[in-house]
Amino acid sequence: MSSKGTPSSIVNAAEELFAEQGFAETTVRQITSRANVNLAAINYHFGSKKGLIQAVAEKFITPLINELSNQMDCYVDTDVKPALDDLLEILMRALLIVRSENQNTLPVFMRLLELAYMNNQEELRDFLIGRYKSRLEHFLDCIRDDSAPMEDDEFFWRLHFMLGSMTFTLSNFQTLHSLEKSRFTSKQSETEMEQILHRMIPVLSAGMQARGEKLYFSKI
Amino acid sequence: MSSKGTPSSIVNAAEELFAEQGFAETTVRQITSRANVNLAAINYHFGSKKGLIQAVAEKFITPLINELSNQMDCYVDTDVKPALDDLLEILMRALLIVRSENQNTLPVFMRLLELAYMNNQEELRDFLIGRYKSRLEHFLDCIRDDSAPMEDDEFFWRLHFMLGSMTFTLSNFQTLHSLEKSRFTSKQSETEMEQILHRMIPVLSAGMQARGEKLYFSKI
Amino acid sequence: MSSKGTPSSIVNAAEELFAEQGFAETTVRQITSRANVNLAAINYHFGSKKGLIQAVAEKFITPLINELSNQMDCYVDTDVKPALDDLLEILMRALLIVRSENQNTLPVFMRLLELAYMNNQEELRDFLIGRYKSRLEHFLDCIRDDSAPMEDDEFFWRLHFMLGSMTFTLSNFQTLHSLEKSRFTSKQSETEMEQILHRMIPVLSAGMQARGEKLYFSKI
Amino acid sequence: MSSKGTPSSIVNAAEELFAEQGFAETTVRQITSRANVNLAAINYHFGSKKGLIQAVAEKFITPLINELSNQMDCYVDTDVKPALDDLLEILMRALLIVRSENQNTLPVFMRLLELAYMNNQEELRDFLIGRYKSRLEHFLDCIRDDSAPMEDDEFFWRLHFMLGSMTFTLSNFQTLHSLEKSRFTSKQSETEMEQILHRMIPVLSAGMQARGEKLYFSKI
DNA sequence: TATGAATGAGCGTTCATTCAT
DNA sequence: AATGAATGAACGCTCATTCAT
Fold first, then answer.
1. Which bases of chain E are under 7 A from a protein CB atom?
2. In the prediction, which pLDDT does A94 show?
């Protein structure tokens, strides 16, 4: 299951621990211990803990973006504009494909996105933006084309409302899954991550297509 | 509002630092230093750093729930069922009121919710659930009454999609605000937090009211 | 012998180890171990290892400068200008007094001066210059008054020739002492540090009073 | 001069870094990185970091001693005894010649001498003494012949006062040069290392020829 | 002959907490 | 009630060296 080689063992162990505990809470000693490698190996192969986190990020995002691009190519030679639901399904499908190649570690990827938006993480943010922004633009343009008409800034914020739904739900999937099971024990809900991604599509889609803004509420 | 007393100074300083840096990243030294109190004061007054975090949580959530209850009382003697948009506006309004009483620290509250959903945070989660769950149920029932008809589990997840939008957007407000300003410099966008809360209402509302689910995508 | 209190124990242990091994070669674990205090005590009391080195520096230099000033005050109300030999004797005497208050640790002080002149030690250098430069100026002026007439830059370099003799001899006193004993075993030379300081006076004095410069040698 | 071969590249890189930072402060990674060779190459070719330092030492001292011997041969067939100033000029000249063959790395040589006099460096000291002591004796005898009459031990110490001036001034030349420039900006002093060596001659000479010792100062 | 990978030991520092007063 | 001092544990990281090829 684990690939060959020390760097690969490290990345695999790190993914598990990052998913279980978060980045700051996971120590290099825990990682190297679980990977059965020397304590210094992380610094040797990745330069620093930060470098390892970036390596983990790349391992996820690169195939995700590739898969997204591949799926979008279906539309490139036709006049058909993809519907919002279809675009979101492409996105969810890409996430699931990446997950199938990185057993059970979608939460790590989502935590990475959350991390990138935190203060004091400009470095990671700039790294990701510099590396992947351009490759995402076509996809986002298509999203916008089937969304309700709106200003640039409104689109910016709605995209992040969407992103928030995804990162919160997936990075805390384990907790939410437990909560759901303990509340609705009767139904023996087989809530798997795939199902949750599926549930998200009509909700997010409706959010992007919602028209009109409520009037600003008076100052309080 | 004023900060008479050591415990109060500590809580105020902690709020600021938690908002700026997150909980794990904020040290008790930073807190006591900013509060101009002794290093040992946190352990003395709150038992531990965790105890302080709970104290901060209570300071936010109690007035929030109170405000929410007050607003809901308007409907209690009538047959009028509040519309989803109105319920969300009540929620946003309550958030803004709490904010006005705890200058600029809505992000802390949102980070607290995120924290409560993390693994290894059962203690905080149980604390919040045990303390506030019952007082939220009426509000949530009203939400459900104006949402699209759906199963319990679907409602559970949609609520958390909503929660994700709110926590992600508000806890990372500073970063998102910067990103928006650097992208759309021309418009001199005066994006304030109030405006963002306002923008969220129709989006979240549409999400909860979205009908029909896409067919499950085939296994991959 | 050792003063009371943790900081004092640390400084005493540090002095010994710095003298034996140098600054970089001495670890905080060695220091805290010899001082029988907790490993974290250095950072608690001095902020960092660098802070401890500065504290050691101050403990030496402050009384040295004070002693120097006291001795120089003898000349302040008279018209007598002190002779170069007398000035050097004042200096040596001040060094010995400081040594008598900090048992056997003149080598540490000399190593400190050497350290301050190294690259990448601007911080220490600036610290010392900012703190003590002005208090040394009168003494240096008197030195110059009884030296051979020379330009500013020539005086600057001759002062440092002198400083080099002192730092090299004293910071390596232990090694030199051993070498001397092994070479001249017959004489059972009782070379003590006081004697060496004494030997230096006529040599340094002659150097400062040497007149005329040799012609520049041709380019090679 | 050219750097064909891995060992040669290593030595050249090491010289530069030793001059800039000192021996302990320079890591084998820095050296191999600047030399563009494998990290293990130092241990492979020189056994250890210490072995490399010895190799650097030899590269300097052997030609220095050779040059010194050559110059001294001028006097071998005559009855003329060289004057102290001439001997010092021969020494300075030899240093400059070695420097011209090892671009700008006189400070390294001086640091090497300082290092050899430190505690815990018996190995290096013994290596140098065993290799070069005998070849220096004639030169030192000539020095003594034109110095003031003195006992063996007095001569031993005066030699090291001289050595201290040289090592301190040259190994810290960069710092001293900066200090001088910042103090005497007006004169646009073209202080080069050659000039400093030149300035040293009359000072050191006078020191060696100084007669009479001051009376021992009373115990304090 | 030469190297990329790996290692054990140790580094200075920081942490939340506790102790003695 | 409150605090300055102190602590044990752990942190990420770097070191010169060695190993397997």
1. 2-19
2. 94
Domain hosting A2: range is: 1-47
B203 touches chain A (CB under 8 A): yes
Q: Does residue B144 sit in the same domain as residue B99?
A: yes
Does residue C161 share a domain with residue C58? yes
Statement to judge: residues B37 and B75 lie in one domain:
no
Residue C63 lies in a domain: yes
Do residues D153 and D187 both lie within one domain?
A: yes
Q: Same domain, yes or no, for C15 and C74?
A: no
Residues C5 and C68 in one domain: no
Whether A118 and B153 lie within 8 Å, measured CB to CB? no
CA distances from A54 to A12, A35, A128, A209, B139 (A): 13, 18, 9, 34, 42
- In tens, the pLDDT along C10-36 reads 999 999 999 988 999 999 999 999 999
| Smallest CA–CA distance from B171 into chain A, residue | A118
Q: How confident is the model at residue C218 (pLDDT cuts 50, 70, 90)?
A: very low
CA atoms within 13 A on the CB side of A119: 18
Measured between CB atoms, does A161 come within 8 Å of chain B? yes
Q: Which residues contact D133 (CB under 8 A, 6 or more apart)?
A: none
**Helical pair C84-101 and C49-73, crossing angle rounded to 10 deg:** 130
Same domain, C43 and C58: no
Q: Is B38 on the interface with A (CB under 8 A)?
A: no
Nucleotide nearest to C31 (CA to C1'): E12
Residue D214 domain-assigned?
A: no
Residues C93 and C161 occupy one common structural domain? yes
B218 located within any domain: no
**Closest residue (CA to C1') to nucleotide F2 in the complex:** B41
Task: Report the domain count for chain B.
Answer: 2
Contact (CB, 8 A) for D207 and C201: no
Higher-pLDDT residue of D77, C196: C196
pLDDT tens, residue by residue, A53-111? 999 999 999 999 999 999 898 887 777 889 999 999 999 999 999 998 887 789 999 99
Of A160, A184, A202, the CB nearest to B212: A202
For the beta carbon of residue A218, count every other beta carbon within 10 angstroms: 6
The answer to whether B153 contacts A22, with C-beta atoms less than 8 Å apart, is no
In this structure, what CATH number is given to the domain that contains residue C9?
A: 1.10.10.60
Cβ–Cβ contact D63 with C under 8 A: no
In a domain, D160, yes or no: yes
Residue-wise pLDDT for C141-194, tens only, equals 999 999 999 999 999 999 999 999 999 999 999 999 999 887 766 555 455 899
Q: Give yes or no for CB of D49 within 7 Å of strand F.
A: yes
- The answer for residues whose C-beta is within 8 angstroms of residue D166's C-beta and 6 or more apart is C164, D110, D200, D204
Percentage of the residues of chain A whose pLDDT score is greater than 70: 91
Rounded to whole angstroms, how far apart are CA atoms C203 and D213? 9
Here the tokens at position D58 are 């030899």
Which residue of C153, C193, C205 to mutate against D (max D Cβ within 10 Å)? C153
